[in-house]
Specification:
The protein is an alpha+beta fold and 60 residues long. Helix content is 25%, strand content 28%.
């Protein structure tokens, strides 16, 4: 019974959550507002951009 519920939960998640391809991002290292290098990632259409990860200890 638990195995069937586990499989059901997994199939529901796969059905309603976006695939990894839909979340594809392109990242580049840019100088952030604080003056340090950091990864800047956008979706494959160049939208929904945001800083990712920790900033570098090296100023830019």
């Amino acid at each position: 019974m638990l195995n069937r519920l586990g499989n059901l939960g997994t199939s529901l998640l796969e059905r309603f959550l976006p695939s990894a391809d839909a979340d594809a991002q392109r990242c580049m290292v840019r100088c952030n507002a604080g003056g340090y290098w950091q990864d800047w990632c956008c979706d494959d259409r160049g939208r929904n951009c945001h800083w990712v990860g920790e900033e570098s200890v090296n100023p830019c």
